Each structure stands twice: as C-alpha cells, then as structure tokens.
Amino acid sequence: MTYTWTDLPPRQQPRDPLAYFALNPMQRFFEADRDFANETPADTDPVDYEDQMWLALISVAKRDDNDRSWSLNDLQNKAANYDPPLPAGSLIIPGEYRHSFRERTDLDVVSIYAKRAYLNAANAADGEHRLGIESITTCAPLDRRSLHPSSEPFLPPAVTQSISSEAVVTAVIDHGIAIAHDLFRREEDGNLVLSRVDFFLNMDDVSQTAGQLPASLGRVWTRSEIETVLKKHLHNGLLDEAEVYRELGLINWQDRPFNSCAHRVSHGTHVAGLAAGYDAGEPVGEDRRIIAIQLPTSVVRNTMGYGIETTIEKALGFVAEHIQNYVQDGEPVTPPLVINFSFGNFLGPHDGTGVVSRAIHTALAEMSLSTNQPRLLLLPSGNGNLSRCHAVIELTEQAPEKEIDWVLQPSDRSASVLSIWLPLMPVVPDAALTVSITLPGENEALIITVGMVPQFTLINRTSPDGGEVVIGIVVYYPPKTPTFRGQIMIVALPTDNPKDVRPVAPFGNWALRFVKSEGVGSLKLNAWVQRDETLPGFPEFGRQSRLSDQNYPRFKAPGGKVLDEDPPSGVSLVRRAGMINGIGCGTLPAVIAGYVDSDGKMAAYSAGGPTLNVSRLFGPDASAVSDDSVALHGVLSAGSSSGSRVSMNGTSVSTPQVARWAAGKMAASPNLPFGRADVFAQALADDPYQPDKPAPSRTGGGRLRLPSVFGGLR
C-alpha cells in the first residue's frame, strides 16, 4: 500500500494539530517558499530553522490549585527551568506588556514570540502542566530582522496627540496601507504635508532604526515623524511617494519580494480610504484621526490557510495602548474609537468560543472598562458563500450513514484543513460515531472512532529513498471547555512543492464516510474547510480545496445563473448557509455583509449565517454596498498612489463604509454607548420588511443606505 497510518500514543500526541503541522511537516515548504521568493538578502546568511521566531497566540492555562491563570512571569520561569533546557531566547514576552500585566493571574489569550523548540514543548502532551500553556495558534515564521526582543517592558509612551471635542479615531488593521495617500493628509502653507495618521505600527519594518516609541515587532511611527518624512520628500510641491514608503518600510524590494504599496491596488489603502479617507479641504477630515497597523507580509501571504488572525491580539493591544494618548486643551481624553479589520477565515467553532474570538472579546471588553466612550470593532462576513467549504451532516436513526468528498486541488502549494465539529455534547458516548477516510486511488480506509478518548494519526507515504514522510494528520479531540464540542480535524500537506521531490499530499477526492452507532441519538455535524487560497495580489501559490456532493446545485435552471442560496428542499450536505467569517461569531464585533447597489440583491459571494452562537444566531448584523452594480463590480476607493481611485469588491469593502458611518454617529454623540446593536437597529430602519428583502441570515438587520464615498467618480 502507498500510504500507512501511525497512531500516536497519548504521551506523544501534540495538543494542537495546526500548530504541530505548521512547526514540523510544513518546514520544507516554508523553506522552499523563502528560497523561491529570495527573501534572504544576498549579504546575509539564512537563519537556521530552529532559530526562526514565530508569533504565537496562546491561551494561558489555569493553575493546578485554583481557577487563576499562570502569569507571564510564571511562563518565563517555567521556560527557564524546563528540563532538558530549551535553546537560549526560546521565549520572548513582548515588551508592550507592562510589569503589572506580566503579574496578572486572570489571563486568557496573549501573544508571545518563540522558537520552534519552545512551541513544540508547549504543544506536547505535558506542555500545559510543564509550561503553563493551554493552546497555541501560530502560522509562518517571522522575519527575524523585524523583531526587537527586550527583557524588560517598554516605558509607557510619552507622545500625545491633540484633538478637538468632535474627534473620532478610526483604527485600520490591514496590509498595504499607503499612509501618505492624499486622502490621509491635510494642507499646510499650500502643501499636503500634515498627516491624519497619529500612530502607525509597521510590523514589516526591518530597518532596526529606533523611533520615538518602541515596538517589539517592526516600528512605530508617530504623526510628527510621518510629517517629517513627508516634508523631506516634498519637491516643488510634489511628493515623492516611493521614497516616502521606502523610508517608512512599506516598500523594500531589497529585502522583500512583495510590496503591496508598490502595486496599483493595495487592500489596506482601499479599506482605509473608505473608512477614513477625506479630501484635504473637507473640514470633517481634521477630526477623523487614524491609527494604522500594517500586518507582517510573511504572515499575510502565508498560504497555510490560517495565520492572519494570530496578529489581532497584538494589533488590538496597540490600539488600546495609544487610544489613551490623546489630549484636549492639554488635558488627557479618550476619544471614541472605531476599529476595522477586513480579514477573516472559514475555520473555527463558529460560536464565539474560539481562541481568536476570545482574544477579540477580551480586548474590546477591557477597552470599554477603561472609559465610557463608545468602542466598535467591525468585521466582514466573508466572501465564501459559493466556496463549497461548509457541510451539515445530519445522522439519524433513519439515515445513520452519510458520505461526502473533500477535493484537494493539484499544484496547490498551501496546506489544506478540514474541521468537523460535533454538536454541543459535554460527554460523547464511546464509539458514538465512526469516520472512515479513503485517500485518492486507495481502497483501504483510515477509521476514526469518536468518544471521550483523543486520537492522533499520522498519514505517511514512502519517499523514493525508502523513508516515511508525514503527508497529513487526522485528529479527534473530545469536548472540552469552553466549546464543549468534539472536533475531528484533517490536515494535508500541499499537493505540490517547487523544490522538494519528497512525497506531497495526493490531490483528488478524499472520500469521507460517517456512520452513527445504534442507540446514539441524532447527530448534527458541521464541517468547514479552511480558506487556503492565495490572497489577491500575491503570487499564486494556494488553491482552495472544497467539499463535493453530487446533490449540490450550483446553477439555477433554467437560465444557468449562479444559485447563491440553498434551495428550500435541497438534499445536499454542502451548504452555502453558515459560511460566515469564523472569527466573526463573537458577541461584541459588528459583522457586515455585502449587497449590490443597482438591484439591492445580496452579492453572490457574501457569506451569511446561521452561526452556532445563540447570541448572534442569524449571522451578520447588517449589509452595505460591496458592488455598485451588476456591471460595475466593486466600489471605488483609494489606489496606492495619491489621486488614484480603484475598484475592489467583497465584504472587505462594505465593512469600512459602515466604519465611516459609525465614526460620524459617534462624533455626534461622543458620550453615548455605541455597539453592534446600533448597527443592527439602523439597518432595520433603513431596510424595513418587504417581500424582496434578503433573509436575515444573509443581510442581518437589513441593507444600510449609506452615501457612496467615491461613487460619484464612476
């Protein structure tokens, strides 16, 4: 047989399969991508894989004797005393965490920098007991030159920004934010050399130059520093934007092969333009201040299908830190805040209990406790409605068996992930469910038995030299707090590697068969395939895997138009419903879908609910325009260069329009609470019930009737 299965005993089982996969089987693919992209400058030696640093989002474990968590100082002590000793510098606590924070024993989700040896030790079966870490979420290794490790916490920032009583701050967390665009500047003496960006964290900066404010990753630019750069590169009233971005670390061809701000279209600039872009002469622009966070390119372009969300805790921490650094008439003041994060994924429990959702909830809740000023985080509902990446598998006494295929694409250089969640069951009866997995071209199946015993199986393939190579893993985890849902996860290597001839995962149909045992009640399983296609603008590496069911209707009959909602009497296991952004299922963020302005219909790609969170069962809170018409796709916003306007579609662009509207509402009532309920209520008012109103699972409260930001230019 071509493939073999290896079951790991409990003491050898890593506790987080995705972290294990990223750190170990994916090593040769990360190294191939780095060499292929020529990311290591010619005059420097490549960093050994064991010395690479990773940004990890960790859930801190509870102490053995009570319900308090370990502190960050405890984690450092545990790492220092680990036996056998870990390599030097294996764990770095970000300098942004103050002494008081490092002593807290009520922690849940925090960020760390760590080497592979530490993360593997923390992910081991005894990692929770020995290192104090409950779970790990990580992705691709960072560029070491962007890190600024510090054994001591940074001093509190002393830089403040002066604002008026009508000011609102919009924080944009994205990639490719061309902060020198004329929509983010103001005029002084006839020249656009004043910036509305008060604080800019460029996580991509590798210059190692110090600014007014320290950063553990990249560099922080303050408003005065940005304006100094603008004035330096202003010649005869014209700004040399390329030089500005080189100095700011946003364009760096020598050290980084992909520079979003050098392209005609950059995601972050387009989003920021919709959220907070104003012509220099517009009076309201002076009071719409900006905090910008540029995410690391190495993380954003990662084609493993997860990783971008690991940066959210650090980004929100940066916003929470600097929203405190404003003054009004010389007195400290905390202005209203709108945060836009136009990214998402398909994976997760979709009930608000995932680690990223918890990190978001904690950050927003703590910001709200520090002040009574309004706070709002906006997330997109996602563009996966037609991706065929969700299935609902209902097993009953009448139909105890179901089959479905998971299709992996050829020449796919991204890992593929399928996650299957059991219903809410604190205790799963032994052998309640069996899942058989048959690989393409094979007859023998791997059998997973579901109960209260975890299972971790390696899928091996023989290499040309006779050795065994891990090409995938199959994992079952019983229910545990806080989700209380059992989970089956299948992770496969890419189906192609441009440099390494060792075995890869087979492309084609991975056949899955689910069988419910007699005597067990009905089971309703939810399966999601993780998003693993390459993001727009990056070199084509990832190709999206999907679920396949012969009963899935893709097109309407007659006519052949795309069918963007599940038929009422549909029998397919694959569903469009429930493809909402996996990190958009918490109770605090407002989630925005997209619709077409010309006909009022939901964009075919706009994902909806239901979710598994009873607090937001329907899914999105509202929808906004993501396409001007059926002929003119997308909406206009800022291109990467000043004066340019480009079109881009997706729920990523409907979301910042709501952020812009919310900022206006907050400016009008800066002392009143404002949250997702207000977004939902406005959607209901703008779009009362009518026969052709889209279902709440697609549009939430309704279609917001917001003025077009740049639509008059079309």
Question: Short summary of the structure?
Answer:
Residues 167-672 form the Peptidase S8/S53 domain. The chain is α+β, with helices and mostly antiparallel strands. It is built from 15 helices and 33 strands.
Overview features:
714 residues; alpha+beta; Jelly Rolls; 4 domains; eight-stranded mixed beta sheet; seven-stranded antiparallel beta sheet; globular; Peptidase_S8/S53_dom
Terminal residue distance: 60 Å
Strand order of the largest sheet: 11-10-14-7-17-18-30-31
Radius of gyration: 25 Å
The geometry reads as globular
Question: What's the helical proportion of residues?
Answer: 10-25%
Q: What is the mean pLDDT?
A: 92
In percent terms, what proportion of residues is strand? 25-35%
Give me the secondary-structure category: alpha+beta
Report on the structure:
With 714 residues, this protein is an alpha+beta fold. The protein folds into four domains: 14-146, no CATH class; 161-376, no CATH class; 390-548, Jelly Rolls (Sandwich), CATH 2.60.120; 590-713, Rossmann fold (3-Layer(aba) Sandwich), CATH 3.40.50. Helices cover 19% and strands 25% of the residues. The strands form eight sheets. The chain has an eight-stranded mixed beta sheet with strand order 11-10-14-7-17-18-30-31, with helices on both faces. It has a seven-stranded antiparallel beta sheet with strand order 1-24-25-26-21-28-19, covered by helices on one side. Strands 23-22-27-20-29 form a five-stranded antiparallel beta sheet, with no helix packed on it. Helix 9 (267-276) packs parallel to helix 13 (651-668) and helix 11 runs parallel beside helix 12. The N and C termini lie far apart (60 Å). The model has no long low-confidence stretch (mean pLDDT 92). This is Subtilase family protein. It comes from Shimia sagamensis. Residues 167-672 form the Peptidase S8/S53 domain. Residues 686-714 are annotated as: Disordered. Keywords: Hydrolase, Protease, Serine protease.
